[in-house]
Amino acid sequence: MVFMQSYCEANSSISHTWVDEGISPCFYFTLVPTILLTISFLLGTIHCVFYQKYGTVMEPKFIPRSCLYGFQQAISALLLLQFLSLIVWRAASGGELPGYVVLYGCFSALGWAWAIALLRVERRRVLVMDRTRGHSTVLLLFWALAFSAENLAFVSWYSPHWWWGLENNQQQVLFALWLVRYIGTGLLFFIGLKAPGLPRKPYMLLINEDERDVENSGQSLLGRTEENQSTWQGFRKKIRLLVPYMWPQGKISLQVLVLFCLGLLGVERAINVFVPIYYKNIVNELTGGSSWNTVAATVSVYVMLKFLQGGGAGASGFVSNVRTFLWIRVQQFTDRVVQVRLFAHLHSLSLRWHLSRKTGEVLRSIDRGTSSINGLLSYIVFSIFPTIADIVIAIIYFITNFNAWFGLIVFICMVLYLTLTIIITEWRTKYRRDMNQQDNNAKAKAVDALLNFETVKYYNAENYEVSRFEDAILKYQVSEWKTQASLAFLNQTQNIIIGAGLLTGSLLCAYFVTEGKFQVGDYVLFGTYIIQLYTPLNWFGTYYRVIQRSFIDMENMFQLFEEEEEVKDDVNAGNLVYNQGKVEFENVYFSYTDGRRILQDVSFTVLPGQTVALVGPSGSGKSTIIRLLFRFYDVQGGCIRIDGQDISKVSQASLRAHIGVVPQDTVLFNDTIQNNIRYGRISASDQEVEEAAITADIHDKIMTFSEGYDTQVGERGLKLSGGEKQRVAIARTILKAPQIVLLDEATSALDTETERNIQASLAKACANRTTIVVAHRLSTIIGADQILVIREGQIAERGGHEELLLKGGLYADMWVKQLQAQDSDSSDTEAKDRKSEKLQPPSTSSGHHGH
């Protein structure tokens, strides 16, 4: 009997489960930790044994980074510490320390320590054949029982042995510790359902997908985003990218505006507190029989405060309108800086990236990303932070001016509201992300079809393209329906929580008024304040959704920012010092993808003023040599030098300033012919543009157009013929007046007569300039100083035209085949001419037929 008295409190026994309208604390605090410790230790040990015996260590790249996982660990550690703190506090308070308190603290601390260990094991090891996702049943069961046990305390609401009365310091401390446990276990359980920090898919599936990704690398433009990945993934990294736009560097006037807007934000918080207080004073003064002067003064102050505040969160007041007006300049600065930086970044990316991009998808990502940044900053700074501040102020105000129950009601309501809002919104993320992907696909198909308008017409594929576009829209609308339906579910959940909190608080306040503890004005104050608080809180879900949607919309844009430049200037890269124009390729190796060499051990030298021609079959690597010299790519072995300087050690801008390129496929801007030619040297005069056009044999053709040099060339120059586009490109290069000229089949789109006319122009433009020509028609490079025959990425033959013919090798075979093809074309042309003469009707001058 002595043991029972020392284990339980005086006049209490563990055998009594129900005492004074509540559960016996001795029984409750013995049963709960025993069950929790048994579950965590017994089932947890089995769990760990299986993971050690049949599991494997996960590769770090498959373990997602998660702030919520760290939050889980922090909450678990806090709960463990509060159990130990309970024992220390009860021992230090000088009162009786029952045995069940020691058992409760020790058992619970051991149970939670084991739960933390399980959490860490699941983070690092995985059952390879496990087809489930998320936390194990052991952890979820432990958290669920721990949260249920804290809810069981509500059964003892009217018991004097529990802390609900808050009548002394001991009850207040116990209540505070229970509040920590209640919130902590609840958060752990609800967050645990999402299982942050753990892979979203079975481990073997992740490994297989990773292998496929390696095989298919480079096929996706914007990278793959895990479907169920939280939008808060990498939150710190995203915020770091946003900080420069939140604080305008080097703009003193804008920085002053930012600080002033933040000051107005603080003024709004103070006004929100005083509006309900003055409303309460008006009611009390009217019911209390105060003088007219007093009531009039109070009403005037109240109306002034309402004028400054506005009609709540939905209707802006004077202060809010002033802040919005002042923020316009900051918002414009942000929008401009984001778009300019992203545009510059895209131009710095490699040719490899631009060849694989989808223009419609990129433009859509830029459009959504830049517009979402402004919304994100505004909602975070002017909506989320103020709403949280209002909640904290309201809780403190109700606790100090009413009593702790009102603060608790507001606190629980807010926690439930915010927690469920976050959980449901995170669940909705996959639908929003999928909707964005379908939107991208629809826009990409539309843009692709419009850019290839002629091809669509050639093959009568209008109905096919319309059908594809309609299918893409239908897929988008399926995702859109899921997004809207889940939004409706979220709104209903929020309304239920808000209604329950308002009903509970209003009933309690009305009860105190009827008991004479509160005045009528206090009820009005509570109703006004709580509705004023719920209005922005009701918008909080919208704010959170907008912020989350902005993060989703910005993901593609962030991925564009994260695309690294493949060709970068060295930190100490200097300018290319041009002397004579000697070009050297020394043992150059290059491949576009691993495992397939394009160039192998290519070495040659182009002396100053010489012309070197590159010939060979398609795909042999001729154009690649041009691209490497222009430094669209960096070599993977060997070295390229100009006047003895390694081009990888000089700045790209200085290198390209000395090189002019006439590409095989000429693309013009949707502008005038004059501006397209002037692009070779922006500062050139109209006369210089015309002289370049004359040299390129395009001037006479331009003058036949009704608008002359002001003729619009259309999208990608489609209004001009292939030959006209190529001659514009040649004129553009002539205007640039480079020291080194690269001709990548520059006359491939020209007819024979025009080609002969322009050869002399090209020869004049390339005179005394180092020139490298990629040619398909061997007749155009007979006069080259050196001809290199490229086959399978290697130089198979080299020498002059006559020399290579005498060798009788690959070049000679190519020459003979081209001559035979020309003879065949000539024969076919003559035969057609003779046939057309036979089919031609007799002339009327030869006489009339007889009757």
TrEMBL record:
Protein name: ATP-binding cassette sub-family B member 6
Annotated spans, Disordered: 821-851
EC number: 7.6.2.5
Entry keyword annotation includes ATP-binding: yes
Domain ABC transporter intervals: 583-817
Tree of life domain: Eukaryota
GO molecular function: ABC-type heme transporter activity; ATP binding; ATP hydrolysis activity; heme binding
